[in-house]
Write a structure and sequence with these properties.
The chain is α+β, with helices and mostly antiparallel strands. It contains two helices and three strands; from the N terminus they run ββαβα.
């Protein structure tokens, strides 16, 4: 998962035995609730989906950041994303 402030950084997680995904917004450590699926058509094939995670507070801000650039493809709950990903395996 990428962050708008550190594109090559590994996903941030909370310290725990079973780390929960956290929001991709800079300095936010709130548990993620949303997955923002996106791609940059200048760099990625149309079917490729990169993801950012968002808490409720940052979902709109991160969605706007991607949307203004024409990158945002989908916004779904983390639970829905994980269910769909498990079904694809």
């Amino acid at each position: 998962m990428n962050s708008p402030d550190a594109p090559d950084a590994p996903p941030r997680t909370t310290p725990a035995a079973d780390p929960a995904p956290v929001c991709s917004a800079k300095a936010c450590r709130t548990p993620a609730v949303w997955v923002l699926a996106w791609n940059n058509p200048k760099l990625h094939t149309p079917e490729r989906r990169k993801t950012w995670l968002a808490c409720d507070e940052h979902r709109e801000h991160l969605s706007s950041f991607l949307g203004v650039r024409g990158f945002l493809k989908d916004v779904v709950t983390l639970d829905e994303w994980e269910r769909d990903s498990a079904a694809d395996r």
